[in-house]
Amino acid sequence: MIKVLIADDHHVVRRGLLFFLKTQKDIMVIGEASNGREAVELASELQPDIVLMDLVMPEMDGIQATRRIKSVYPHIHILMLTSFSDRDHVVPAIEAGAAGYQLKDIEPDDLVDTIRAIIAGKNRMHPDATTQLTKSNEENINLPHMLHPLTRREKDVLAELTMGKSNKEIAASLFVTEKTVKTHISNIFSKLEVQDRTQAALYAVKNGLTEN
């Protein structure tokens, strides 16, 4: 079962998503949040596989909530589900760690397909979001980083990995467990579409992904 947390400040939106997702045999909605801060708290408590995250919410917006969740729980996937498709929203959302970006007018079947794809380790973007990322690339913003977004912690791990450190050494340097390091490295491999540490290091150097 794919465990889903819905985070949206509009009750009608949450009800609509819940109503449809409950009909899917492989999806289970385990919680609802009405603001970003609650989304962070419930993500910590319930450990969903994926969060359907609105962008504009009270107390804490979706980008801030995504950043906080991904920094502590890198295994939790984030799908932005919003009404905004401009660059000022798209780029920060992807940089924060969102694995997908879709608009709220998405067809229900397409939403389910997107959820399943993200759980399988793939990125899913609305065409308008992809257009904004492409424009950013044309203005010398790193597109590979946007399409394969690394969280700040993943970039820290990648930087250590690029220096040839072992998982144990990375864990000691970043004050985390080896298990957490392994999770970060697995996510890095998936996002960068590489098979091993050497390929990850080469990709990082080539694309400037370890730069601050």
TrEMBL record:
InterPro entries in the record: CheY-like_superfamily, NreC/VraR/RcsB-like_REC, Sig_transdc_resp-reg_C-effctor, Sig_transdc_resp-reg_receiver, Tscrpt_reg_LuxR_C, WalR-like
GO molecular function annotations of the record: DNA binding
CDD domains: LuxR_C_like (cd06170), REC_NarL-like (cd17535)
Residues of the HTH luxR-type domain: 143-208
Gene3D superfamilies: 3.40.50.2300
Domain named Response regulatory: residues: 3-119
Keyword DNA repair in record: no
Alphabetical UniProt keywords: DNA-binding, Phosphoprotein, Transcription, Transcription regulation
The keyword Transcription regulation belongs to this UniProt entry's keyword annotation: yes
Protein name, per record: DNA-binding response regulator
Species assigned in the record: Kurthia sibirica
